[in-house]
Amino acid sequence: MAVKMDKAATRELITRRAEQEIESGFYVNLGIGMPTMVANYIQPEKDVVLQSENGLLGIGRSPYEDEVDPDLINAGKETVTAAPGAAYCDSAESFAMIRGEHLDLAILGGMEVAENGDLANWMIPGKMIKGMGGAMDIVHGSKKVVIIMDHVNKHGDPKILKACKLPLTGKGVVDRIITDRAVMDVTEAGLVLVEIVEGWSVEEIKASTEAELIISDELLEISQ
Amino acid sequence: MAVKMDKAATRELITRRAEQEIESGFYVNLGIGMPTMVANYIQPEKDVVLQSENGLLGIGRSPYEDEVDPDLINAGKETVTAAPGAAYCDSAESFAMIRGEHLDLAILGGMEVAENGDLANWMIPGKMIKGMGGAMDIVHGSKKVVIIMDHVNKHGDPKILKACKLPLTGKGVVDRIITDRAVMDVTEAGLVLVEIVEGWSVEEIKASTEAELIISDELLEISQ
Amino acid sequence: MKHMYTSCHEAVKEIHDHSTIMVGGFGLVGIPENLILALVESNVKHLTVISNNCGVDDWGLGLLLKHKQIDKMIGSYVGENKEFERQVLAGELEVELTPQGTLAEKIRAGGAGIPAFYTPAGVGTPIADGKEVRNFDGTDYLLQEGLTADVSLVRALKGDRHGNLIYNKTARNFNPMMAAAGAVTIAEVEELAEPGELPADGIHTPGIYVQGLIEGKQEKRIERYTVSTHA
Amino acid sequence: MKHMYTSCHEAVKEIHDHSTIMVGGFGLVGIPENLILALVESNVKHLTVISNNCGVDDWGLGLLLKHKQIDKMIGSYVGENKEFERQVLAGELEVELTPQGTLAEKIRAGGAGIPAFYTPAGVGTPIADGKEVRNFDGTDYLLQEGLTADVSLVRALKGDRHGNLIYNKTARNFNPMMAAAGAVTIAEVEELAEPGELPADGIHTPGIYVQGLIEGKQEKRIERYTVSTHA
To answer: What Å distances lie between residue C135 and A119, C109, C138, C141, CA to CA?
Structure first.
């Protein structure tokens, strides 16, 4: 039995599940777009520092109108505030943090993920190339890389593949994939289905995933 | 006719001549020991910034007793002050300035200099090795490297050689040598005698220099 | 004491046809607005521009694009600009995309006299094409070379007559590394200070990297105005 | 919020026999005095110590030497210490001398995830023995690898509970790079601050690099007391 959800509900489902990846004490980089929305769901009792690769360690909430400072933005170029105890730095230092594996977690979007952890999320040949921004650095630097995306593309085709077709962002860099249908871990043995969203069957997940899936002995169900 | 001077007078002669290498607007690194003394002779009308590789751009005079801050030293570990408009930085940034050729001039001491600009000033085999400190970086970074030293060693043997015998600090790094007897430039053609201290003859300089000397057509005399 | 330019027009005379320039900023934040405007008016052509982004159609480096002054762009993300896309597709503009952290480090290396370094970013991707891959301790890395520029244009909040600069919040971004990597670095500052007024422990760019300054009032356009509403 | 150690003794429990540690400071300036004293009392042995200098006979890292806790020293200048000389000549202590700027950059690289870089320093000298030499644009450079440590001990003037640090004057030196290059970094601070008290634009070491803090009063011994006399 497939599940129909509107786009907003899908995004909320994915981002709420992604929030569970964040532990208290973590330093986290959230990618542009849907990953940025994860910040809205971080439970207040968690002590989390969000890093923005344009030079802010400690992103706060969006500013009230009278607080807007044009010199204070996140990597998505949105106006933000700095959290108490924040620090600014230059771009070289910001990526020193990233490349030096000082971040505990990065949550990024994806176009394709392969069962070996390859990620493609920055270009589609034939279309205008906008650039990779910081994604190629971030996928190598964080202790854990979680990709959040729809399970299939708008044509209903799998985005989780045996091998990526699009040019890569990074090779073997993904640790976990969270979609609107399931959670999967990249392991030495292969891609393991560890959680499944309520309403989907294992067979349906397999059918909508090109990559070979190993079903975890401890498969959990995510309630919507 | 050889000239006899006591050690203090020799040092003053050399450091005063070295001061003339400093132009207004220059950023300068002065090595430990005799080079540090050059600062005492910098003419006040010159706008000069002295860099200390331990992280101070803008060394001031020595502190008065009531100004001494144990956290403020030069690379020779002497207490100093910061000049107005000084900036502190970390050691990586300090050597970024040096390595990146942002300094106009470095004045350093030497044990041996070869006619091709090789410099040895950090170790004597068989003696305890104390370390090269920042010298190996500084000789590569500055736009001009001037070595100041006695013309001969305490046994009267030449220190300006066809080839260095001691382990090198840097290869082909010296631009000019200033001694108690002469000033010599390292050029593509070879080592050129450009100035001679009053009281010394060209023949005496040649006799106390192992390196082949080209005599400049515009040889100047330095008065004592 | 540094050269104090009397106008941005005087300052950008350091830039000639075929110059390679670096321009600070991330998006429109921290860009030297008035130096860019003067560069547009100078009408120098065939520039190679190193900057994280390329402005928007009607502001920042987008203005240089509109006037066809750029031959080659080196950046990490150039997606905010229709004219950019048009020129690339028409073959009028060469673009070299570099991962953002690699770009920042290449510029830092250039200013710091490091000719090249190794980084994991881009291994196994199109970025690695033609680049040396080398393994250290079981991991593959790419060799990346340092970048320098004939002229760097940076923007700071405060600058003193020794060239010391302090940046504001996330307007710092690429500016400090670019200041160090320019043979000539021109700083557009919001406020000029006398030497000694800026805290010596709080300087972001030590004056040695800066050759001249100009004061400039900033518009500070916002790309994505995002606010919280009071509950 | 970071771990606030209740004592230096608790803090140095992170360090074990055969650990590689980095210790901040240039000469005796900026050294984490109390952490070193606690490390002496802990009696851990067979340390590899990365520090620009090795203290003096009766202070700083010289105390670790005296108690024969160091197997190997990586630094740029170790000439202030008789016991150091004795142990090296007796073959009790291994020493690896690295040019100061190269040392600073190796530590920065280690913290920044750069496995190796090229530098001109040391080409044609004994430092180049066994190292790759490579030519870029007509100049020879040495390949140098990044350095990291199991534990870094640094000293700051101020630190907040997020681990953000501000250093004082030339006591900054190697501390910021070492803070970033330690798997565990312990900061000895002269003053503890609450988050938000330190200026976000003036932080030298962002808190991400620091795992724990301890407050400590410093003696600050002076090696070369040099003063001007009033005219």
So the answer is: 21, 21, 6, 6
C141 at D interface, C-beta within 8 A: yes
In chain A, residues with a C-beta closer than 8 Å to the C-beta of C133 are: none
Q: Do C228 and A63 touch (CB under 8 A)?
A: yes
Tokens 């390679």 belong to residue: C20
Residue carrying the six token digits 């769901």? A41
- Which contacts of A217-221 are long-range, i.e. CB under 8 A and separated by 24 or more positions? A218/A194, A219/A193, A219/A194, A219/A195, A220/A194, A220/A195, A220/A196, A221/A195, A221/A196, A221/A197
Q: What is the pLDDT of residue C35?
A: 98
- Chain D partners within 8 Å of C168 (Cβ): 201
What's the full length of chain B, in residues?
A: 224
Cross-chain CB nearest to D78 (options B62, B131, B135): B131
Alpha helix (H) residue ranges in B38-182: 91-99, 135-141
Say whether pLDDT at A69 is over 90.
yes
Task: Give the pLDDT band (50/70/90) at residue A223.
Answer: confident
Q: Which residue has the higher pLDDT, B126 or C173?
A: C173
User: Which one has a higher pLDDT value, D1 or A212?
Assistant: A212
Q: D185: distance to nearest CA of chain A, Å?
A: 12
Q: Are β-strands D116-119 and D70-75 bridged in parallel, bridged antiparallel, or unpaired?
A: unpaired
**Euclidean distance between CA atoms B127 and B123, whole angstroms:** 8
pLDDT band (50, 70, 90) for residue A1: low
Question: B216 phi and psi, to 5 degrees?
Answer: -65, 145
D209 contacts D24 by C-beta, under 8 angstroms: no
Q: Is the pLDDT of residue A128 over 80?
A: no
C6 at A interface, C-beta within 8 A: no
DSSP D7: -
Q: In whole numbers, what is the pLDDT of chain D averaged over residues?
A: 96
Integer Cα distance of C85 and C80 in angstroms: 9
> Which residues in C67-113 belong to E strands, given as ranges?
70-75, 94-97
Asked if C208 and B89 come within 8 Å (Cβ–Cβ), the reply is: no
Query: Which pLDDT value is given to residue C102?
Result: 98
Question: Among partner residues D117, D169, D201, which is closest to C117 by beta-carbon distance?
Answer: D117
Are the C-beta atoms of residues D48 and D15 closer than 8 Å to each other? no
A53 is catalytic: yes
D90: phi > 0 → left, psi -120 to 50 → alpha, else beta; which?
alpha
The answer to whether residues D45 and D73 touch, using CB atoms and an 8 Å cutoff, is no
Q: Which residue of C has its CA nearest to D143?
A: C117
């007793």: which residue's tokens?
Answer: B65
Residue pair C207/C163 in contact by the 8 Å Cβ criterion = yes
Give the Cα separation of C40 and C203 in Å (integer).
31
Tell whether pTM > 0.80. yes
* The token pair that represents B74 in the structure block: 């030069």
